[in-house]
Amino acid sequence: MRIARIAHPEGIGWAVVEDDGFDLIDDPFRTGPDDLRPVRTAHGRSHLPVSAARLLAPVQPRTVVGMAHNTGSADRELAPEAFLKPARSVVGPGAAVELPAGVGRIDAEAELAAVIAADGSVFGWTLANDVTARDLQATDARWAQAKGYRTFTPCGPWIETELDPERVQLELVLNGQSLGSASTVHLARGAVEVLDYLGSFLPLGAQDLVLLGAPGAFGPLTAGTTVTVRSPQLGVLANPVRTGPAAAGPGTPSPLRTTSGVFA
Amino acid sequence: MRIARIAHPEGIGWAVVEDDGFDLIDDPFRTGPDDLRPVRTAHGRSHLPVSAARLLAPVQPRTVVGMAHNTGSADRELAPEAFLKPARSVVGPGAAVELPAGVGRIDAEAELAAVIAADGSVFGWTLANDVTARDLQATDARWAQAKGYRTFTPCGPWIETELDPERVQLELVLNGQSLGSASTVHLARGAVEVLDYLGSFLPLGAQDLVLLGAPGAFGPLTAGTTVTVRSPQLGVLANPVRTGPAAAGPGTPSPLRTTSGVFA
Fold first, then answer.
1. Which of A246, B156, B215, B254 has the greatest number of CB atoms lying within 10 Å of its CB?
2. B201–A100 CB contact, under 8 Å
């Protein structure tokens, strides 16, 4: 079953994805995936055709966590190690990835992500692009900046609730050119092992995202192109790439500075 | 003005803190601090005495961010560097800090924290305890585990909307014994500089927390004691310390493993 978050003329909501459109449902993170409840819009519609809706990021997480050095099998020699991404860096299918100026190479990474349920169990799976300012990692030891810019975590297109996470094929496509396909079976640590490690310390809950690492190639993003993560099991996550807002120069007031008198 | 999140017999809500209790208000992150709106409970009460309410964590953030190496002035020689803590690690005044077993020394750090408004500006300020599993930092380069356990981010007791963040006195008290008092004026980088740095890349919004670094001493936590962060400007944040749940042994099913068939 595929569950999406969609924007439509009457608002924003959840839906089961069918071949001919979307069947609207109540918040599936409240009911659980086994007890989905149909809902109607204010105008009485329970079904929307594909053309009447737009896919949003399938989750609005509070925690986004990824695994450092979890690519090929050689990484097994290192202890498992997690990093956090800002929850607000998540964007959905079709939303622009904005490249900050002056930070050097920025890579896309095609990953499988676990979507967490309210009780901490796995709700389902989706695709994610773990956008990373590669050159910044050398000086930004905690990666908060290197992986933390606005728009740096595209995910979607929907949540697949039935999937063997240890055999998901992932392909990264940069502006129409494939960098090749790889399976999650080649990750140093698979989904079960990663989730066991994180479960030993990290509080996780409804809509949280666990990025499982990139088993295949990654590649640099260029403004004016499109980056696509695709999988036969999970669909297509495509995002245009554009130049981000110019970095504020020295002395430029930050939005954080304009406060209601607290610095007065 | 002091704004708190409280639990009372009729539910959970926001309130302005007065000497004789709490004046209930609508969500201040929706209205902004300059347009607070009084509300009544279902039973018509607009004011609650101190004895009828319990302080909760003043925010439920999506992003909690701290600054690495931002203590004494020598740290200015290093570039600013941020780390993320899990949003779900936040607990309020009086809630237990749980010490995981087998991870060595766990320290308290007394910090000033900025509370962010919906538009990304500063809404106000509160106290935070940046609990850190010190020995883990040596092998956990991204600090996601070392700073990321459940209950590792006590904050409160309320949000102060009027404050000079560059001159806040902070004292760390471990089981009644003061480790001394220090001012935020001695931080390598003060609030304005930190918020400017974070504003250059990090998406922040309503209820997010920015931990500004510990200007004073930190110290190890012991189960059965109380850890207190206090400030003449911001009040008292006290938390009991206890032993956390035993670490799951190898082969123990993690909560993340019990899913509704997704691993079937």
1. B156
2. yes
